[in-house]
Amino acid sequence: MDLSLLLQNIFAPTVLFFFIGVIAVFCKSDLEIPAPLPKLFSLYLLLAIGFKGGIGIQESGLLNNQVLLTLSAAILMSLLIPLLGFIILRLKFNVFNSAAIAASYGSISAVTFITAESFLASQNIGSDGFMVGALALMESPAILVGLLLVRFAGPKNRPESRKLHLSSILHESFLNGSVYLLITSLIIGFLTSLSNPSAVEKMYPFTHSIFYGVECFFLLDMGMVAAQRLPSLKKAGSFLIGFAILMPIFNSIIGVLVARSLSLDTGNAFLFVVLCASASYLAVPAAMRMTVPEARSSYYISTTLGLTFPFNIVLGIPLYMSLVNKFIPISTF
Is 283 strand, coil or helix? Predict the structure, then answer.
């Protein structure tokens, strides 16, 4: 890993605010963010990044071959990763826990993606807006795979009230609040950019000017939440702790190979790799808590939020950039 990339990432305001949140918990500070605000920040970030992504897709051209291939590859990765994770996790866990954890690692973290975009900006490296389309499309398939794994690999004597039907699987996969807001904001951004460019300018102060500040505030809260989750990792055991670190690295290597085959440039390749390596701690856990109550939430929440998210924010982002710099040919920059 390039040490300069690591240091630049660690001293970024977003990451520093994350550390401040972690330290506040460890030092038993009475720092507290009122409960409704983190949810509001989360919704704002999803809305803003979705809107900007829709504009980016419109500017890139929805029927552009590079766009279509990248979005298709993103969907394929969100289907493949939970299957690979499930096979590994079944060595130690039952079907319910394996499916819930695997789905979490097949889905994505929008905040990790946003932090990666900020890192790119600090490096003066550009990326295309259609990568937000990949972000939006990678949320639902992993949830779908996880629920299908429970349905077909789970015990046949599951109580009728807990059996998963196709309608409930599709509902949780595509109408989960986070997924719904991200996709609809992306559509609105696309349509607005296509039909009314002046309205895009009016949205600029909301979707751009205050974005970085809200991200810092949200990561301050995430630092506190992640630190509070760390004690739960003891219950998870060494196998799951190892999985929470090694699985993202493994997924990032696959992501680099796919990005290379797609001839993505540096910025887009990096964001694609980050999407492959991130894990969901919002959309998937919400879906799994409702539909797979047999799975222990302490497993899939403490690992994704308490370990994988901090790892990606602090060490993963510079590591993935180093991988991209090493394996993506200069001719594609």
Answer: helix
Token output for 190: 């696309």
76's tokens = 């394929």
Residue 20 · residue 223 · CB < 8 Å: yes
Integer Cα distance of 22 and 5 in angstroms: 22
d(C-alpha 143, C-alpha 164), whole Å: 13
If we measure between CA atoms, which residue out of 168, 178, 165, 169 comes closest to residue 145? 169
Q: How far apart are CA 216 and CA 18, in angstroms?
A: 8
**Burial class of residue 158, CB neighbours in 10 A (0-12, 13-18, 19+):** middle
What digits encode the pLDDT tens for the residues 163-181? Answer: 666 777 777 777 878 888 8
Q: Note whether 22 and 224 are within 8 A (CB).
A: yes
Question: Are 54 and 192 spatial neighbours (Cβ–Cβ below 8 Å)?
Answer: yes
Give the C-alpha separation, 310 to 200, whole Å. 34
8 Å CB contact between 106 and 88? no
Find out whether 54 and 188 touch, Cβ atoms under 8 Å.
Answer: yes
- Rounded to whole angstroms, how far apart are CA atoms 41 and 306? 19
- Residue whose entry in the numeric block shows the structure tokens 């500017």: 59
CA angle 36, 37, 43 (to 5 degrees): 95
Is 176 strand, coil or helix?
coil
C-alpha dist (Å) from residue 96 to 129, 166, 209, 280, 294: 36, 18, 43, 17, 6
b/e for 91-104, b at 16 or more Cβ within 10 A?
Answer: eebebbbbbbbbbb
Structure tokens at 64: 């552009």
pTM of the model: 0.88
Provide the H-helix boundaries in the chain. Answer: 3-10, 13-26, 36-60, 65-89, 95-106, 110-122, 130-137, 140-153, 166-174, 177-195, 197-204, 211-229, 233-261, 266-277, 283-291, 297-303, 309-311, 317-327
Please report, in angstroms and rounded to a whole number, the separation of the first and last CA atoms in the chain.
20
Q: How many other CB atoms sit within 10 Å of the CB of residue 159? A: 6
pLDDT in tens, 240-279: 999 999 999 999 999 999 999 999 999 999 999 999 999 9
